[in-house]
Amino acid sequence: MAGPVAHPPPDEAGWLAALPEAVLVVCDEVVAYANPAARVLFDPSSRTALLGERLTRLLPNDGTATAVRLDGSSFAATTLSAPTHLAGRPARLHVVRDMETEAALREGLDQTRIDLLALSGRFIHLGEQERRHIARELHDEIGQCLSAIRVQFAKLQRRTDSPESLALIDSAAGMTERTLARVRNLSLQLHPPQLDTLGLAAALRWHVDQQRDLHDLDIRLQVGRLAEPLPPDLGIAVYRIVQESLSNALHHAAAAQVTVRLGMQDGALELEVSDDGRGFDAGDLCGRIYSLPTLGLLSMTQRASLHGGELHVTSAPGQGTQIALRLPVPENGKHDEAASDIGR
Ligand SMILES: Nc1ncnc2c1ncn2[C@@H]1O[C@H](COP(=O)(O)OP(=O)(O)OP(=O)(O)O)[C@@H](O)[C@H]1O
Ligand SMILES: [Mg+2]
To answer: What gap in Å lies between CA 178 and CA 252, rounded to an integer?
Structure first.
């Protein structure tokens, strides 16, 4: 060890001590100040304050890959150094970063991100399975029962003479008819069978026609040549993203026109949904997407990520909104593996 040891002025010691980075201030090649982070990094058992230690013992190859703890163990590090003054004497300030801990933390975060994505993939997959099941149940079971009741009412109508009874039967038959239409519509909304039988383009045409009629809005759909049949999970993902984008345009934008464009470019599906409505501040959406209290934009982003794609939202007040999606289409056969991994 060597002395004499100078201390940083109280002001500087205050903010140096608060830094999460390890900081050493070195005078004449000897540590004259070490902040708490440096003491934890170089002397985990906290026996010393590192003061008086020679810099070459802690950082043998000044500025390069290895640093050495007081117990002799070494770790990968990066350092930054700059000239400074300590109590009026020229000194050098070294900021030391433990790359092993950083790398482990980053690896842990990456793994957590992958796990969360896989988990949300499972939920989305299960949700779609459930929707499909309920849609089928509604259509096949409840729909057929209601159709049978309608037939019975028709028989009753033919056999009844009493005007009062006929009026009652008419009313009940009308209610059955409306319920049947509602159940069929609900079933189609939950999972349009066109997706499985006719493909994505047909399902989108049906959905857009329906929304146009329901909301009396100018919705334009342009679909180019797609590599249909697409992998089923991919088709559903694009369908749901269009569905949510249109729902947002209808509910939030007060738009006069919405355009949906879908096509293929360099082996990827490219989708754009744009409206000329009131827009919103989407500037910092990327950083906030996971803290939004709503689910629409988040689930669109999740669905895109799950299939290795990217979704961008461009919007500003008074400037309309544009949703742009690019989704790679896997070569035949490869997708089923990936999709079932996610869905399992
Ligand atoms: N096309 C749009 N035009 C104007 N504002 C929009 C548009 N799309 C989204 N927004 C704004 O972004 C917010 C978040 O959208 P998001 O779809 O996540 O939620 P939501 O539609 O409010 O609810 P939900 O969870 O039912 O989808 C909306 O509440 C709205 O303020
Ligand atoms: Mg929404």
So the answer is: 29
